[in-house]
Amino acid sequence: MSQIEFLAQNTQNTLNSTFFSFFLHICKKCCTFADAIYENMKRIILMSLLSIFALGSCAGQGGEQNAAHITRFRYHYDGTIGGNSHSYGVDIADRKATITVEDMQHHDYGELTDTAGVDFIQALEALCAKHDVKRYDGFDKYNKYVCDGSGFSLSIRYDNGQTVDAHGMNEWPQGYSAFSDEMHELFRPYCERMYEAALQRKKDLGVSGPLNFIMMNFIQQGESGYDRYEVMLSRSSIRQNNFEMRVRSYSGEFFPKGEYSVYTAVPDEIIDWEAFAKLVKKHKLVQWMDWHKTAPDYNNCEWFQMSFHFENGLIEAMGTEHPEHYKAFRKDFLTLLQKTYFAHKNDFFE
């Protein structure tokens, strides 16, 4: 190999070595840069995930604080057939609820008020959330083809300014029935407590003044017998024909067997109002106020209905389940009625 060829070969080897070293250097730099990018990306992704998790945790823990709360709730049911119209109201401040209830079946109680705590408020809000009542907002429909039926109105106010207003007459939003059932169940124990307290106040007040009107029915059915007594007595200033009586005596217990029918006017003194009033006190009929109970075997029980009107207050009761002293009162009342009838039969009841 000549000297020139040797130099050329060495020069080529040197260039190759230099190029290879440069190439390795560049590759290492690129790899280092790529690793750096990879590590930075990992850090960014990790920090993003941690941030999302942290925000989610805060939302979960602070959601109760950030959620909209009910401040006012109004519901009214209008039962045009059979009555039973009623209203519920709730006003909430400082997480304390004032509940108001008004019920046609207890019309003489007026508007009743009770209070409730956080448990009731949370239950009411959970009920509204469960049935998504916010979607009821703007519902306003009626069925023009139904003359009677029933209707509702619902109004809710939230502390963030959101409102729900819905109305219907024989038309209801989807899912309304389930919401209504659960809502009544939520209010039921509070209503019962208010009704019981109002009834006790009514009993404590009692009745006073002269007795002016009596409506008394004893109607046997099934195994209880076949006797039937329907009586309406009043002062002449209330009804012109103030003595009304229809009796079907099958047993002959108080009236001889047969049927009796009277509808006539009699002087007030013919009816012994004081004696009838004494029966109220003797048998503690004030405790019968608003009695309305059905016996399990009601088809074989005597049904009774009564209404005694005093100058101040009245006593109303009915049912096939009988209150305390029922049999004794029934006996005394029908005995007094029978004596009144036969004492004046020839003068007024022929």
Tell me what the structure shows.
- The structure is a single chain.
- This protein is an alpha+beta fold.
- It has 2 domains: 70-204, 2-Layer Sandwich (Mago nashi protein), CATH 3.30.1560; 207-348, Mago nashi protein.
- Helix content is 40%, strand content 29%.
- The protein contains 6 helices and 14 strands.
- It has helices spanning 3-66, 118-130, 176-205, 273-282, 326-343, 345-348; strands at residues 70-79, 86-93, 96-103, 112-116, 140-142, 150-158, 163-169, 208-219, 228-234, 243-249, 258-264, 291-293, 303-312, 314-319.
- The strands form 2 sheets. Strands 4-3-2-1-6-7-5 form a 7-stranded mixed beta sheet. A 7-stranded mixed beta sheet has the order 11-10-9-8-13-14-12, covered by helices on one side.
- Strand 6 (150-158) and strand 7 form a beta hairpin.
- The longest helix has 64 residues, at 3-66.
- The radius of gyration is 42 Å and the shape is elongated.
- 16% of the residues are buried.
- Mean pLDDT is 86; it is low at 14-20 and 49-65.
Question: What's this model, at a glance?
Answer:
The chain has 350 residues and is α+β, with helices and mostly antiparallel strands. It is 40% helix and 29% strand.
Question: What secondary-structure arrangement, pairings included, does this model have?
Answer:
Layout: H1 3-66, E1 70-79, E2 86-93, E3 96-103, E4 112-116, H2 118-130, E5 140-142, E6 150-158, E7 163-169, H3 176-205, E8 208-219, E9 228-234, E10 243-249, E11 258-264, H4 273-282, E12 291-293, E13 303-312, E14 314-319, H5 326-343, H6 345-348
Parallel strand pairs: 5-7, 12-14
Antiparallel strand pairs: 1-2, 1-6, 2-3, 3-4, 6-7, 8-9, 8-13, 9-10, 10-11, 13-14
Helix pairs in contact: 2-3, 4-5
